[in-house]
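Lab notebook: predicted structure, single chain.

Context: the supervisor wants predicted structures on file for every construct in the current expression panel, including those that have not yet been purified. This is the next one on the list. No modifications to the sequence; it matches the entry in the shared construct table.
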Amino acid sequence: MITYKEYFQILDELRISNNMSVSELCEGVMSERTYFRNLHSNEKIKFSNFIKLLQKLEIGIAHFVIYAIHLRGEDTGVIKFVSRVQTKSFFDIKPIYEKVLKFNTDNKLFALVVKAFIKKYEYLIEKINKDEYKNELELMINQLDNDSPINIFEITIYSMYIELENKLEVNQIKEIINTLINMDLSLGYFYHLCSLDNLIFSLLDKNIIEDELMRSLIEKFQMAVRFISHKSFYLKNYLYTAYLNYLDKNESEMRKNLLLFATNHAIVNGKDVYELGKKKMKSLFNLDFDEFLKKESNKAFNLAKFKIIN
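Prediction complete. Output recorded below exactly as produced.
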């Protein structure tokens, strides 16, 4: 059970991830003193004020609950492992991987999706080769029940297969995408986010699906990423938003979002992910990553407020 104090502690985590000060958040709602008191005591909170604070962060109560239940606190190690594999962040993954290898569940579909991420990790670190990973995914797909309604775990496995091989029929890919777009975010939130990311990143420059369907995928990703504090997903959001700007022929916004992507991508990600991002930017926008970053950074720092007065 989440206590009153924990509601405010979770809210404060979201405030920090949204780069909002306490004074900005509290203005017109409550005093900063009351806010800090709620952070450290279990006094009953005024629900209407709590909702107002969420509204200032542009977060609905349903999405607050998703964050509190699915993305925060202790778990079996699975969410941490999935997060590390999805974002290719392996600095602390070894003990998490070893823990997940021992994970057991009676939910057969959940067990399959965990196994899929294990195999993806083993492929990424070259413990198994591409063909072995592909065969594992195909075995999993063959175990899925085609007569039952498709759920988020099945979509996640399909998205990983499309990411690797992209050899499904176009109509099947579109069916998977439409199902994902229309699916409730709260049903396996983090797997929903990973599936969106897999499909967008792997299909964005392939001209397989129509622009409007890709737009719907990206808009769903934009909605989902607001409720997670994770730099790698934020970076992808800048890149995907730049692509929507490109479709809308809004070059100034496109360059603004690409600069946000490029400056942070160069700092946050390791070599392999960094090179992948550079290639994706070239294939999508026909822009050389290094030249763009140098040119746009110089332009930004030559604004009047950055000029040094002699």
